[in-house]
């Protein structure tokens, strides 16, 4: 275990991220163990800054310009396995798992959806990943203020005075730095009642999977992602077209949850009904 964690730390430092997942092979050991997966062989999906799904991929065969890749997608409760025949530049089309000696063993253990149930309701993969910083307007304003304070200190040798606000008849110092919600405390609560505003915020976050994106190739699901707001989902829809549109027979569908089902809102290419 210690050797695995040390290796993971070295890999993560070099690649900006690393994944730990359990594996098992009864021919080797009588219990599962952890392995480290490299970040450059993974396609992660994050929800509210936390890993919600990830697809690992590896090349399992090459012949005369053709490349076979094994995709292993981890979602809460399941692992989906697929084999794809393409080129060095494209993923290609899904083919039976039996087409490669590396993946033929999975054919007998996956269900009709190509999935293996883990028996664990949550995601079975963890990661230490360098998440990109979200540069909101509040972030930029705070950075400008911090830079101005630094410049003033260098010029005068004194700290810039802190802003003060009047609250309940007493003077109190309030930081100009934004909160984790992208603004100061007043703009976050937006109400004289923090408790009521907090309830409203929770209600707005209630359906974290309201909008879903699905990428398929020749009818087989390659990857999916979920977002709580339409603006984010539509940005990802456009992004996925640019990133995965070259996959053979690719289709990208944006859907909205309606009860227990999802209803398609739009799809790419739009000529595929």
Written overview of the protein:
- By secondary structure, the protein is of the alpha+beta class.
- The protein has three domains: 2-129, no CATH class; 163-204, no CATH class; 211-268, no CATH class.
- Helices cover 24% and strands 37% of the residues.
- It contains five helices and 15 strands.
- The protein has helices at residues 2-15, 137-156, 185-189, 194-204, 230-244; strands at 17-23, 33-38, 42-47, 50-63, 66-75, 78-86, 93-95, 115-117, 126-129, 164-167, 170-173, 211-217, 220-227, 250-258, 261-268.
- Strands 3, 4, 5, 6, 7 and 8 form a six-stranded antiparallel sheet that branches.
- A hairpin with a 2-residue loop joins strand 4 and strand 5 (66-75).
- The longest helix is centred in the middle third of the chain and has 20 residues, at 137-156.
- It is globular.
- 16% of the residues are buried.
- Residues 132-136 and 164-206 have low confidence and may be disordered.
Helix content: 10-25%
Q: What is the succession of H and E elements?
A: HEEEEEEEEEHEEHHEEHEE
- Residue-averaged pLDDT, rounded? 75
What general form does the structure show? globular
Uncertain spans: 132-136, 164-206
- How many strands, which pairing sense, and closed or not: the largest β-sheet? 6 strands, antiparallel
* Number of separate helices: 5
Number of domains: 3
Distance between the termini: 50 Å
Task: Compute the CA-based radius of gyration.
Answer: 24 Å
Decide which structural class fits the backbone: alpha+beta
Percentage of residues in DSSP E strands: 35-45%
Number of strands: 15
